[in-house]
């Protein structure tokens, strides 16, 4: 009976994901695991253990102009975390996470990408920048735009500290190229886009929550206006039959299969 309830729960979650382009699972990761990872991140940030991406590198609204500018050495992402520690490998390959991914992607064999996300996301007070409206697929080159990201919250996330904003059902939209700027961010100067953005919602998260979202779901995030650094882990997954385009950035490192 318990197995049947779990199956039904996954089916309902998959239906919601297909409809909305995202699904939030509360408390999927145990608090003690979140604490272990937070401790690892704290040690990796001071002193900084690269490779890392800095706020100055992204050029987003509010970021320092160069690494040499005041606040320019503020880290935004700790990169390649899957290969850095068993804590992250266990998180990326977690059985509970895998069960949701199999339901969302509708395949048994799921791989985690080492080329995209695969990072600790940080938003520091003072020098965190705003992430403009975009679809993650703009960065990636795969046979099909059918990838799912898992966002692991290690603490509380709200709009005030740079939490995620999502536009429900936007993964089903086929927007004209002219509705994006040259960097493929959604243009907020267009009335049609403004109407679309008005449908957005803020996703509030607590430590242990996992937010799954489609690679075509339009999302954004503001600055961290609090006094505490926000820390999250993000991995991206794809079906074994959905391969990266040879020679592209998406094919730089091999993907790793989840236990099936």
Rounded mean pLDDT score: 93
For the termini, the CA-CA separation is: 22 Å
CATH topology: Jelly Rolls
CATH superfamily: q2cbj1_9rhob like domain
For the secondary structure, the number of strands is: 13
User: Mind telling me the C-alpha Rg?
Assistant: 18 Å
What is the helical fraction, as a range of percent?
A: 10-25%
The biggest beta sheet reads: 9 strands, antiparallel
The string of secondary-structure elements, in order, is: HEHEHEHHEEEEEHEEEEE
CATH level-two architecture? Sandwich
Portion in beta strands: 15-25%
Uncertain parts: none
Which structural class is indicated by helix and strand composition? alpha+beta
Shape label: globular
Count of DSSP H/I helices: 6
Number of domains: 1
List keywords for this structure.
single chain; 260 residues; alpha+beta; nine-stranded antiparallel beta sheet; 13 strands; 22% strand
Structure description:
The chain has 260 residues and is α+β, with helices and mostly antiparallel strands. The protein has a single domain (2-257), classed as q2cbj1_9rhob like domain (Jelly Rolls, Sandwich). The protein is 24% helix and 22% strand. It has 6 helices and 13 strands. The protein has helices at residues 2-20, 31-45, 55-58, 86-92, 95-105, 191-197; strands at residues 22-25, 52-54, 75-79, 110-112, 119-123, 131-134, 147-153, 164-166, 201-202, 210-214, 219-221, 230-239, 256-257. The strands form 2 sheets. Strands 1, 2, 3, 4, 5, 7, 10, 12 and 13 form a 9-stranded antiparallel beta sheet that branches. A 4-stranded antiparallel beta sheet has the order 6-11-8-9, with no helix packed on it. Helix 1 (2-20) packs across helix 5 (95-105). The longest helix is centred in the N-terminal third of the chain and has 19 residues, at 2-20. The chain is globular and about 50 Å long. The model has no long low-confidence stretch (mean pLDDT 93).
